[in-house]
Specification:
InterPro entries: DUF34/NIF3, DUF34/NIF3_sf. The chain is α/β, with parallel strands linked by helices and 283 residues long. It is built from ten helices and eleven strands. It has two domains: 100 residues, Udp-n-acetylmuramoylalanyl-d-glutamate--2,6- Diaminopimelate Ligase, Chain: A, domain 1 (3-Layer(aba) Sandwich), CATH 3.40.1390.30; 125 residues, Udp-n-acetylmuramoylalanyl-d-glutamate--2,6- Diaminopimelate Ligase, Chain: A, domain 1. Helix 5 packs across helix 10. The protein is globular and about 60 Å long.
Length: 283
């Protein structure tokens, strides 16, 4: 049996129902003919020049990405535009593109389940369920096998995710014992209140902003400690999950692989060589 683009789409939409997507999102088949045969599929977080180059080199017929290529409405895809150029390259090469974004965030299992598993958590429930008692929703709450100091937990997160120049930064008492953890793949500071109400020891997400993080920590006491990772790194574990979905549904007919191209945009990281006192001034 020869698998088609439509077969891959059907498998992914069973796992990540499009109705789970937020109203502002753009998920599904971006380009490609559902009737075309597929022998090899590449999974990635971002559809950018680097991942398209890899797809061409690897001879794939389909890319499955987490981030939408065309999230905002467009009136054209001219080849001299960055995204238009990507669309043209994909179509000319006969490569289909499918995106699963917030529907993959909310599905069970979904993006945050993959992040939780990478860290070593046993998932208990969603951080923000679709409805009370539901297994679907944004983020996950889970437990570690045993409590460990926050400093060790931060290192655990860094070791579990692919390396980036951004690295992993954290806010909290290094000696605080961590057992219960909330995670949310991608930008998650809008769920800081959910993590606090859940009573977890730590919250792992990406793109934490200065003011929301500072306001979260200001009360002190039992506020969850924060771990801020690179956006791309927090969602990359999902790629293997999605690849396994397709492999299981189309056993023996489709070869799947996960791109290891780092599409995190940050390429340098530096710290000041000056010495600073506790108030931030130079000594």
């Amino acid at each position: 049996m020869t698998a088609t683009v439509g077969d891959v789409v059907a498998a992914l939409e069973r796992a990540y129902p499009p109705e789970f997507a937020e109203s502002w999102d753009a998920v599904g088949l971006v380009c490609g003919d559902p009737a075309e045969p597929v022998r090899r599929v590449m999974f990635c977080v971002d559809v950018v020049e680097a991942t398209v180059e890899q797809a061409l080199a690897e001879g794939v017929q389909m890319i499955v990405a987490h981030h939408p290529l065309l999230l905002r409405g467009v009136h054209g895809v001219p080849a001299n535009d960055t995204k238009g150029r990507i669309v043209h390259r994909l179509i000319r090469a006969g490569i289909a593109l499918f995106c699963a974004h917030t529907n993959a965030d909310s599905a069970d299992p979904g993006v945050s389940d993959a992040l939780a598993a990478a860290i070593g958590l046993t998932v208990d429930r969603p951080l923000d369920p679709h409805e009370p008692g539901a297994r679907t929703g944004i983020g996950r709450i889970g437990t570690l096998p045993a409590a460990e100091p926050f400093s060790a937990f931060v290192q655990r997160v860094a070791d579990a995710l692919p390396p980036t120049e951004w690295g992993v930064r954290a806010a909290g008492d290094p000696d605080r014992m961590i057992r219960t953890v909330a995670v949310s793949g991608g930008a998650g500071d809008s769920y800081l209140g959910h993590a606090t109400r859940a009573g977890v020891d730590a919250y792992v997400t990406a793109d934490l902003r200065h003011h929301p993080a500072g306001e979260h920590l200001e009360p002190g006491g039992d506020q969850p400690a924060l771990v801020d990772v690179a956006h791309w790194a927090s969602e990359w574990p999902w790629c293997q999950q999605a690849a396994d979905v397709v492999s299981a549904a189309l056993t023996g007919t489709v070869d799947t692989f996960v791109s290891t191209r780092r599409t995190d945009p940050w390429t340098l990281h530096a710290r000041s060589t000056d010495r600073h006192d506790a108030q931030g001034g130079t000594q």
